[in-house]
Amino acid sequence: MMTWKPVAITYSVVEAAMMAARLESAGIPARSHQEAGGSALGLTVGPFGEITILVPETMVEQALAMLEGMAMTQEELFTSDYFRLHELADGVYAAISRSETGGAGSNAGFVDLGNSVLVFDALMLPRAARDLLAAVDKLTGNPARILVNSHAHPDHIYGNGIFPAETLIVATPTTRENIVAHSAEYLKEDKKELPGFIAQLQKELKEASDDATRRAVTTRITLYSALLETIDEVAIRPPEMTFKGHVTFYGSERSVELVTYGRGHTDGDAFLYLPEERILFSGDLLFAKTHPYLPGSIPEAWRTTLDKLLALDIETIVPGHGDLAGLEDLRTERDYLEALEKLVRQVIAQGGTADDAARVAIPAEYAAWDGARRFPDSMRFLFERLSEGGQV
Ligand SMILES: [Zn+2]
User: Fold this and answer.
1) How many domains does the chain have?
2) What is the pLDDT of residue 392?
3) I need a surface site. Which of 129, 131, 209, 220 has the fewest CB within 10 A?
């Protein structure tokens, strides 16, 4: 039997994952905590939130030497367990949720206007929102004066309450109405239902038959456990200012325009377009290489909105979910919405039910995408819309 010895201890899931990956790439098997039988991927957190990295006794010295050199190579802009920060242009940053850990719940970003900062979306986890504010402070030295809520979904607005009272939250009127009308109720439901939901995910993890599913479920367990742990820190704070069409924010160095084309992913999505830098913060109008969430959307309007966005001069897109993207991802998502509608129309033509629609296999071109669990819900949603004789 192999004897395992600890070589490092950390409170950062990301750091632990990086250390484990580094060790394994050098042929040193790494395990976490006392679960020496588990894999490095399923890192186990100890009773004090610590993660202990263990290696076989015979490889301790080699492992320590590897880990010592590692700190030197980690020269990141800003390190968060929840997101990876990218500087897209001078003063323009994307916070991309880390898929290898539980992540932040969604993506966000911020733009330095010279004497103040505009933050685009508040993330889901309070701790992630705190990291976002810390990143703003560290990288710009300016206050986060404006926070945009791209839409009302909890994974983008639960972080609102972490922002200082001086930060003005801006959204479309429908997003504000939705937050005022529903968010407190969603939060109450989350508080009640998260423990059962996480237990269900644990069960799914046990029953999972392939690594991709195991990874996806582990990510969700980590994310929702982190939410449950800090849910009392979530405070629903509705936007204090609304706009129709577009609104421009003027800073000492740069001005930016916040725009809405109306309905799409929800009934009032806002996006931020920086024409000079050719950067788009799309919110959930784009899920990049990730199954979009259709329930509650207005698919026909969503396609029209995507067509309009496709006409813009864009190089980089910060999507609501998924990695940094480009124009082709907008096109792919437009095709995706059309493809699903066609599939549902076939089910209806054959006299099928909503369950039949939900059972349709994911088309091969989207099979490798993240978020496959959203597909059946989206199919069911489209079935209900289309079978009512309505347009999608
Ligand atoms: Zn959304």
Assistant:
1) 2
2) 57
3) 209
Distance 154 CA to ligand 1 centre (A): 8
Domain span at residue 272 reads 83-175+236-292+300-327
The encoded tokens of residue 152 equal 């009302």
Find the helix packing angle between 327-349 and 374-387, rounded to 10°: 60
Q: 151 C-alpha to center of ligand 1: Å?
A: 7
For ligand 1, the distance from its centroid to the CA atom of residue 213, given in whole angstroms, is 22
Q: What span, in angstroms and rounded, lies between the C-alpha atoms of 222 and 104?
A: 10
Q: How far is the CA of 48 from the centre of ligand 1 (A)?
A: 33
Task: With respect to residue 282, please indicate whether it lies within any of the assigned structural domains.
Answer: yes
Contact 173, 268 (CB under 8 A): yes
- Distance from Cα 283 to the centre of ligand 1, integer Å: 8
pLDDT digits (tens, 9 = 90+) for 126-169: 999 999 999 999 999 999 999 999 999 999 999 999 999 999 99
Q: What is the pLDDT of residues 291-317, one digit of tens each?
A: 999 999 999 999 999 999 999 999 999
Amino acid, single-letter form, for residue 366 = Y
Provide the token pair at 261: 């084309």
**What is the rounded distance in angstroms from the CA atom of residue 252 to the CA atom of residue 377?**
46
If you measure from the C-alpha of residue 357 to the centroid of ligand 1, how many angstroms do you get, rounded to a whole number?
22
CA distance 6 to 356: 51
Q: What is the pTM of this model?
A: 0.81
Residues 153 and 246 in one domain: yes
pLDDT band at 215 (very low <50, low <70, confident <90, very high): confident
Please name the residues in contact with 229: beta carbons below 8 A apart, sequence gap of 6 or more. Answer: none
Distance CA(294)–CA(283), nearest Å, equals 14
Query: Which CATH number do you get for residue 59?
Result: 3.30.70.1530
Residue 344 inside a domain? The answer is no
Main-chain phi, psi angles of 122, to 5 degrees: -110, 0
Is residue 125 in some structural domain? yes
